[in-house]
Amino acid sequence: MTETAKETLHVALRETRAAMVGKLDGLSEYDVRRPLTPTGTNLLGLVKHLAGIEYGYFGDSFGCPPVPQLPWVADGSVWDNADMWATPDETRDDLLDLYRRAWTHADRTIDEHPLEAPAVVPWWEEDRKATTLGVLLVRVLVDTARHAGQADIVRELVDGRADSLEQGDAQWWTAHHERVAAAADRFHLPR
To answer: In a structure prediction context, what are the per-residue pLDDT tens digits for the chain, which is 191 residues long?
Structure first.
């Protein structure tokens, strides 16, 4: 990979971060926090999780962990999904600020190292711990894009807002939904 590849990946990561944060725009405190899937997926939790991802892969893996350490990492509750939801004491502004600080920390690491720079991921299995900035940049971009996609769906569940709504008005989307449902219903088996 070349520096051009590095910049392309970095630009894509920045755009995906912005898309993720944009999913919270205009929503109430309740709506950014409420779980909308059986596993508890919620918008603010995704932001909190991604802050930890960026600090972990671009901080801890390069010997530059955040100071202070994230509380849910320090106490080990990250492994019990403590990073996937906002506690009542954690405000939207606090978690958005945390995510932006994680970006700054990560961007510095990305800017200062070539893609081939060695990294060590402490929580990976021993035979996989050694890696490179390039591998981690791709991994974080994929993870951020995956979570931004989840946020697209969660946001649509909250208030119907979807980025693709420019394609048609509410009537068009209702008709489209009915077409999709009718096609699926042909395969619905009685229970």
So the answer is: 556 999 999 999 999 999 999 999 999 999 999 999 999 999 999 999 999 999 999 999 999 999 989 999 999 999 999 999 999 999 999 999 999 999 999 999 999 999 999 999 999 999 999 999 999 999 999 999 999 999 999 999 998 887 755 667 778 878 888 998 899 988 988 87
What are the structure tokens assigned to 15, written together?
Answer: 């755009």
CA–CA gap between residue 34 and residue 92 (Å, rounded)? 13
Class of domain 3-185: mainly alpha
Domain boundaries, the chain: 3-185
Gyration radius of the chain's alpha carbons: 19
Tell me whether residue 55 is exposed, middle or buried, using C-beta atoms within 10 angstroms of its C-beta: 0 to 12, 13 to 18, 19 or more. buried
115 touches 1 (CB < 8 A): yes
Q: Say what the pTM is.
A: 0.90
